[in-house]
Amino acid sequence: MATAHGITRDEEIYDYLFKVVMIGDSGVGKSNLLMRYTKGDFNIESKTTIGVEFATKTVTTQDKKVVKAQIWDTAGQERGAVGALLVYDVTSAQSFKHVADWLKELKQYADNNIVILLVGNKTDLRDRREVKKEDAAAYADQHQLAFIETSALDCSNVDLAFDRIINEIYKVVSHSAVGAGDDEDDNVLAKKGGSSAESTAATGKGPLTGGKKSGMKLKEEGKSGGDVKKKKTKCC
To answer: Domains in the chain, ordered, with CATH?
Structure first.
């Protein structure tokens, strides 16, 4: 099966496999964010996702580590995830109100050390905005979440959002691996592989259990995303 870059899984070599989930109300644009990041596409007639949907993207860190991100656009896949994008629609106060419920569910089922990025999507709809950027930023600060606003339609900050969370996960996981020496837990990272690594990402065990809290404050949006380099999508 081909990945986002057209490389078959059997041919692909990577150092780390990260399971990342996208959660939030229906209609906030999760599927289009995922499609924009992994394929450079946008579907104006996108409908509610039914069933399980995921895509993969491979990036290379500044220290030449290859990271494969397996990104799930569906609720109920929180277990085993090392990162989450909690998405709301800036034109829907209701979707922002429900962020608290999604966060509660995430913390109930995901690992304590999961990296969470709060994402306000659809910033292109400026005249329909209902959620102020400063209110969302204050909420993120209160709950120790990273925060960014995006537009899947015009591609604003889409790559930056995903790259930032992948970069932060890499920092946490690589730090944990250094602390553990050569005895790396298979549930912490997946090394050099295809099918065996795929099954590791799908395990129900906490990938970062035993790791230290990182105080996960990411850089302000618009600044450098850090240590992740990537292939550009069609729009950016």
So the answer is: 16-198 (3.40.50.300)
